[in-house]
Design a protein that fits this description.
globular, Alginate_lyase_dom, lyase, Chondroitin_lyas, about 5% strand, lyase activity, about 450 residues, mainly alpha
């Protein structure tokens, strides 16, 4: 299966929540039905049937393509092999690990016959008659580029012989083209202005790639832009994330955006900029969002989505009451053996609230215009059809305390400045009125 232009080096993925709306069966129900028992092949369905959206319902045939799974596998493998080569340099397999990390990058990105082009015109493409171009949503497929940037930094610092100056210069050239496409193309600009997790993960990529190519100022600017814009509207006073809570799998999407927010703060920490204490316009921090989500009952969704983020927040903000350790011990007793446990140790951070080195660094004010690695994923769970209610209790000392209420007058998020609805995902849109209750503004009914 190739993209519409026929070039196998162009990245292709299909919109995950789009389903064909053709009833090709012996008892036709629509004008698209054939009224016969003729078997249709997949490609005919892809180009002939109109497609409809079912939020949270993954169309299994999107996995026919290597697309997003290949990106996830390569980026994770590159990071793990780089880490293994450095952490166990005397191992008999150390040279194999190092060679793997370099080879995977060379084949996937740089090979002149098979390497992927540094632009994503056909990501999350919507199939059907007349569909030729992908969506900005497809940029999310490459969120694992943070791992690649991390791995390359590790190999550079460790002077891994397999990571040659030639490979490094070639990957820098590829990455420069990619970040240029991200920041100047129409699809990239749309992703960069997305108010929800898509915008958060976009900032991950732009910042990480700029670090990779040596543009620290560009990385700081990308993070500053995010924290001064999307972040301001992403967390309510209670810690709720309205743009994620409105979805059909709200627990998953809250955790998903937590992953992106934490990664952005980690990248800032690497650059010496404190975004851990950045606040939304309602006064909430990343920790506030984690605490709120941690107190929710995930219902039919998977609680494992939150585990890496609990560990990260504990390492960054501290755990004086032991609530984070207690949560992980209760729900995942083996958490100390998970990879994210080793990523998220207090010593890994430079400017976090608990960092021992914070006093020796200049902590830049994340709210000033001139100022300005990564969470593990888990399989998504089944769809839930109702939105979870806010947790009861607002403090560790007294669980019966009410949750923080908004202290400012409600104004629609900035994303609504140019329209009455904004896109959240594949064919999913939301209005300001639909989000308002999640910010804690409930209209009183007339008596």
């Amino acid at each position: 299966v190739r993209p519409p232009n026929g070039d196998p080096r162009d990245y292709l993925s299909w919109a995950p929540y789009h389903w064909p709306d053709c009833n090709w069966c012996a008892n036709p129900r629509t004008h698209l039905s054939t009224g016969t028992n003729v078997t249709r092949n997949g490609t005919e369905t892809w180009t002939t049937c109109p497609y409809v959206v079912r939020d949270g319902k993954l169309n299994p045939d999107v996995r026919i393509l290597n697309g997003v799974n290949a990106v996830a596998d390569v980026t994770q493998s590159v990071l793990y092999n780089a880490l293994a080569a450095i952490l166990v340099p005397t191992s008999a397999n150390a040279k194999t690990y190092a060679k793997n990390a370099a080879t995977f990058i060379q084949i996937f990105f740089l090979d002149p016959k098979a390497g992927v082009y540094p632009e994503l015109q056909y990501g999350q493409l919507i199939r059907g008659p007349g569909k030729e171009v992908g969506q900005y949503l497809g940029i999310l497929d490459f969120r694992g580029m943070v791992k690649v940037a991390n791995a390359i930094q590790l190999m550079r610092n460790a002077k891994i012989p397999d990571w040659t100056t030639t490979l490094d210069s070639q990957m820098v050239a590829w990455s420069n083209k990619y970040v240029q496409w991200l920041t100047t193309s129409d699809l990239g600009k749309q992703a960069g202005s997305a108010p929800n997790n898509h915008g958060s993960f976009y900032a991950n990529q732009v910042a990480a790639i700029n670090i990779l190519v040596g543009d620290a100022d560009g990385a700081r600017t990308a993070l500053q832009t995010y924290f001064q814009n999307q972040f301001k509207d992403q967390i309510a006073a209670s810690g709720e994330q309205p743009f994620e809570a409105v979805r059909t799998r709200p627990y998953h999407y809250r955790c998903f955006n937590l992953e992106a927010m934490i990664t952005n703060a980690k990248l800032g920490d690497y650059l010496g900029v404190d975004f851990w204490t950045a606040r939304s316009k309602y006064g909430a921090t990343i920790q506030t969002a984690l605490d709120y989500t941690m107190a929710l009952n995930p219902g039919k969704e998977s609680i494992v989505d939150i585990f890496p983020h609990v560990e990260a927040v504990a390492a960054v903000y501290g755990d004086p009451t032991g609530k984070y350790a207690a949560f992980l011990t209760k729900n995942f007793p083996a958490y100390a053996s998970a990879t994210y446990y080793f990523y998220d140790q207090p010593e890994a951070f430079n400017v976090s609230p608990t960092s021992s080195s914070k006093g020796g660094k200049e902590v830049l004010d994340a709210t000033e215009p001139h100022q300005l690695l990564e969470e593990g994923g888990h399989p998504v769970a089944d769809e839930v059809t109702t939105t979870a209610k806010p947790p009861q209790g607002g403090s560790d000392d007294d669980p019966d305390d009410p949750l923080p209420a908004p202290t400012i007058s409600f104004a629609c998020p900035a994303a609504f400045a140019t329209g009455t609805e904004v896109q959240l995902d594949d064919g999913i849109y939301v209005t300001c009125d639909e989000l308002k209750p999640f910010y804690g503004y409930v209209e009183e009914e007339d008596s």
